[in-house]
Amino acid sequence: NGVLMSTLSRPSRMMLLVNPQSGQGQALTLYNNHIQRMLNEAGVTHTLVITERQNHARELVKEADLSQWDALVIMSGDGLLFEVINGLLERPDWAEAVRTPLGILPGGSGNALAASVHHYSGASLVSTEELLVSCGFLLCQGLVAHMDLVSIQLSSGPRLFSFLSMAWGFVADVDIESEKYRHVGAARFTVGTLVRLASLRVYKGKLAYLPASEDDHSEDEGSGNNMARHCNGQASSVAPSGDSPRQNTFHNSCHSNNSHKVRRTESTCKALGGPPDSLLPPLDQPLPSDWVVVTEEDFVLMLAMYQSHLAEDLLAAPHATSDDGVIHLFYVRAGISRAALLKLFLAMEKGAHLATNCQHLVHAKVRALRLEPHSPKGIITVDGEVVDYGPVQAEVHRGLARLITG
Ligand code: ADP
Ligand code: MG
């Protein structure tokens, strides 16, 4: 039985990064009360690292001797994983480093990846506490899947790598404004949405995208809880075929293929690390003719998703899997009423927003996109974190990272 096999071949050395300030400030308590015992009983050896400040995890991961660790696990919100992923890609050995299996335990107020992992396992919606226990079990099972990363180019600064979402307009504003309601936990987005609805506005800009070809997403039609494709090509079994059974789950199946070093090309790659972007011209250059330019320039929101959940209770991209190689682009055109927008967000709780037949909502599966906001000020978020406002473009790198999905 596949589950049993993977339980036997779990990792031996895990770095568990806990952010004591995330969410309602309870991550450490949650670790002590639930996770420590669960991992110990499952025989998962782990070293607890308590983050002390912003960017602590990023610096730590940038300098760490990764040969010491079979997995890096984050117990916080999505923000801490964003740091870890970007720390890995800033390393000179990023091509190896980014293959380190990453795990997530919900400890923050924005636990979208944890909710996505839970969803990919086929389980249904649960409360925050149940989500933690579920993710703890999945972690103990230790199945590793590929995870798409999206490189984000801004007009200033180096590239960023994103695992979850990019947002502009309504969703980005709610995400940031709702930081002040973090004491209510995951409900902060609901509160934020209601507050923002009262001051609904239009965001002007130019949006263009490169559509995904049909075979990019052949797997993701149909039911909303497809299993992610696992590294060894089998979702249900990690039975070792080689000679090192104990490490099969975390290393052999994932680190063996494709371990070439990618050469840097100066014209397309401003950042130190990460694969070059092959689909994006420089941000100030015109787009190729196979891109689709959205004719409207008045929006209520733009949301690019590459995992299923935008928040614990927002199933924004029901068909997304962790490695479909697709950016699920949503935008809502201006002209939508407050009532219709609220209806969309309520339907999103179960992933039913696309079925509401809202004429203002558009969904496209894309491989790259470019957004040029017209207004000089505003908010753009990447994985829920604010980035410099201005023109931005993005390209998906299929299965670049590794994610423990159970
Ligand atoms: P939440 O979902 O609650 O926002 P995050 O994981 O997104 O949780 O964490 C928010 C931010 O907290 C991250 O950007 C991280 O850099 C920062 N952080 C990590 N450790 C600490 C700490 N000890 N004190 C303050 N901030 C921290
Ligand atoms: Mg956060």
Task: Give me some keywords for this one.
single chain; 406 residues; alpha+beta; Rossmann fold; 2 domains; 4-stranded parallel beta sheet; 11 helices; binds adenosine-5'-diphosphate; binds magnesium ion
Note down, in words, how this protein is organized.
The protein has 406 residues and is an alpha+beta fold. The protein has two domains: 2-148 and 221-255, 3-Layer(aba) Sandwich (Rossmann fold), CATH 3.40.50; 153-218 and 288-399, Tumour Suppressor Smad4, CATH 2.60.200. The chain has eleven helices and 15 strands. It has helices at 2-8, 27-41, 56-63, 78-89, 94-97, 112-120, 128-141, 170-177, 188-198, 248-255, 338-348; strands spanning 14-18, 46-50, 71-76, 102-106, 144-154, 160-162, 165-169, 203-211, 292-293, 298-305, 327-333, 361-373, 380-382, 385-387, 392-404. The strands form two sheets. Strands 5, 6, 7, 8, 9, 10, 11, 12, 13, 14 and 15 form an eleven-stranded antiparallel beta sheet that branches. It has a four-stranded parallel beta sheet with strand order 2-1-3-4, sandwiched between helices. Helix 2 (27-41) links the parallel strand 1 and strand 2. Helix 2 (27-41) runs parallel beside helix 7 (128-141) and helix 8 crosses helix 9. The longest helix has 15 residues, at 27-41. The protein is globular. The relative contact order is 0.20. The site of magnesium ion (MG) has 6 residues, from helix 4. Magnesium ion binds at residues 77-79, 108, 110, 384.
